[in-house]
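[audit] Reproducing an earlier prediction to check determinism. Same input, same settings, fresh worker. If the tokens differ from the archived copy the diff job will pick it up downstream; this log only records the rerun itself.
[audit] input (275 residues):
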Amino acid sequence: MVISLSSTTVLNNGVEMPIFGLGVYKVEEGPEVKNAVRAALEAGYRSIDTASFYANEEGVGEAIKEAGVPREELFITTKVWNNQQGYESTLKAFEESRQKLGLEYVDLYLVHWPIKGKYKETWRALETLYKEGKVRAIGVSNFKEHHLDDLLADSEVVPAVNQIELHPRLTQESVRAYCKEKGIKVEAWSPLMRGRLMEEPTLVELARKYNKTPAQIILRWDVQNDIITIPKSVKKDRIIENSAIFDFELTNEEMQRIDRLNQNERTGMDPDEVS
């Protein structure tokens, strides 16, 4: 199957989501985020991932508006933050995000972290938003298998996506296998491990072989693993470079070599320890 920057994957409710997008975590509100989003859209990206916690939804919305790309071609994700969780507060948080983004609807809305004693009520609010047509798909972020088991026991809608920290040092194989079985797509945040893997010998060697960067090798590994990926950058040339991964293919043996780099090493919080 030939894949490209415009390739999509079909979520469990039939909605198509781009396999590749731009993440804007820690991208400053104002010109920085607007320029990054604009550069991505000009380069052919159609998926943008933000969150209320990132405090840059307004800039994302302005860049989308100014880019003039037809709304139906875009896929916009945002998330409800930890202190906004609960039924009524999530509905309110969603409306605030929607207005900041300046959108009629959001393509994907996620529960940012599994906050104990809160995430089920939060999910109920997401189900309401989904039934009302305010979001095209709903999902979770940073959920482990036991969180998903707990959620699925009482939910009407199976999450479409689970966005988790995932890179060659944290391959998350058990969560991926669980999600595959349940029809939940996996999306990688921090796919490049915040730049810490650029001198990893295996990746450097493969980068040399394919005349690519170690970052491009990782991102290609993601898409070949059917993992949706959203690398973050604020530099136009890097945004373009990150997406130039559709003109080569890693072999099965090379994919396995990258899998073996796993050390279960997180750069972010452990979902069981977030409060």
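[audit] rerun output stored. Observation attached for the diff report: The chain has a mean pLDDT of 97.
[audit] end
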